[in-house]
Backbone:
C-alpha cells in the first residue's frame, strides 16, 4: 500500500525519513540492513540528518545506490560523490556497494552492479529511497525509456537530452524491495505528483509514468511518499497523515 505523508518542509521530511529508516533497521534485530540511496538534491538533508542519528546501526548496514550518472565517482554530478559528502564521510557502514560508473561503458557498469546485488541477503533490500523528477522519473527510469523485465539493473544511455548516461535499478528490483521511501519536494513537482498518484490508483494501463508504474507494482508492499506542502498542493486534502494515497 502507498502511504502519503505531507510534511511542512525538508527538515521535517528528513527527520521523518530518518525515523522510518531507523524503525526498519530496528525491526530486523541484528540482521544485515541494506539501505539504497537516491540521487538528486532532495535526499541530501535526509543524509545529513541520518548521519547525526547516534543510535543508527551502521555496524550492520550495507549502503547501496538506486542509480548514478556514468561519470567518475569524483565528478560533481555523481550521486555517489554527493552522498559521500552528505553521509558516507560521516559514518562507517559495514559495507558499501557503489555503482562502478567509471567502467568502460554503462552496460558493463550495469552488469557489474547487478552481480554485486547478489550479495544482498535474499536479493531483497531493506529500505530503498527514491526521488521523483518533474517528468515523473524515479531513480533513472525515465518516461518512454523501455525497462527490461529480466534485469535488476539497466544501462540508460540517453535518459533525455543533455543528461549523462546512467545506470539504474529497474522496476523488477523496486517491486521486490522492502520498504520504499519516496521523497518529493517543491511546487514544480505538484502537478506531476498528483498525476503519478492518479495513475498508480488507475490499475493497469499503458504509458504510466515511471514512478506510477513502480507504485502499481508495489501495491501489496509498503511504500511511503514523503511530500512537502508545496509538492502536495494538488493532492486531495485529508490524505496526509498516513492514509492510503
Ligand atoms: C538522479 C536521481 C533522480 C532524482 C530525481 C529528483 O540521479 O537524479 O536518482 O531520480 O531522485 O531527479 O531529483 P531532485 O531531488 O534533485 O529533485
Residues:
Amino acid at each position: 500500500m502507498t502511504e502519503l505523508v505531507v510534511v511542512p518542509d525538508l527538515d521535517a521530511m528528513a527527520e521523518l525519513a530518518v525515523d522510518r529508516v531507523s524503525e526498519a533497521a530496528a525491526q530486523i534485530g541484528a540482521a544485515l540492513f541494506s539501505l539504497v540511496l537516491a540521487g538528486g538534491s532532495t535526499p541530501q538533508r535526509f543524509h545529513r540528518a541520518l548521519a547525526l542519528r547516534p543510535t543508527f546501526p551502521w555496524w550492520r548496514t550495507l549502503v547501496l545506490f538506486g542509480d548514478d550518472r556514468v561519470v567518475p565517482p569524483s565528478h560533481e554530478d555523481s550521486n555517489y560523490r554527493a552522498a559521500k559528502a552528505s553521509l558516507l564521510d560521516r559514518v562507517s557502514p559495514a559495507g558499501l556497494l557503489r555503482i562502478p560508473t567509471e567502467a568502460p561503458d554503462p552496460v558493463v557498469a550495469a552488469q557489474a552492479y547487478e552481480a554485486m546485488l547478489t550479495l544482498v541477503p535474499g536479493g531483497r533490500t531493506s529500505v530503498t529511497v527514491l526521488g521523483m523528477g518533474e517528468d515523473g522519473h524515479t531513480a533513472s527510469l525515465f518516461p518512454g525509456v523501455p525497462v527490461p523485465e529480466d534485469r535488476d539493473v539497466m544501462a540508460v544511455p540517453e535518459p533525455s537530452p543533455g543528461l549523462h548516461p546512467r545506470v539504474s535499478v529497474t522496476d523488477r528490483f523496486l517491486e521486490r524491495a522492502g520498504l520504499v521511501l519516496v521523497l518529493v519536494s517543491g511546487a514544480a513537482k505538484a502537478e506531476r505528483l498528483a498525476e503519478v498518484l492518479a495513475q498508480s490508483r488507475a490499475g493497469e494501463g499503458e504509458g504510466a509514468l515511471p514512478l506510477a508504474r513502480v507504485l502499481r507494482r508495489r501495491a501489496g508492499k509498503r511504500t511511503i511518499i514523503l511530500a512537502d506542502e508545496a509538492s502536495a498542493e494538488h493532492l486531495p486534502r485529508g490524505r496526509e497523515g498516513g492514509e492510503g494515497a
Observations:
- The first strand starts at residue 2 and ends at 7.
- Residues 38-42, 67, 79, 131-133, 137-140 surround 6-phosphogluconic acid (CB under 6 Å).
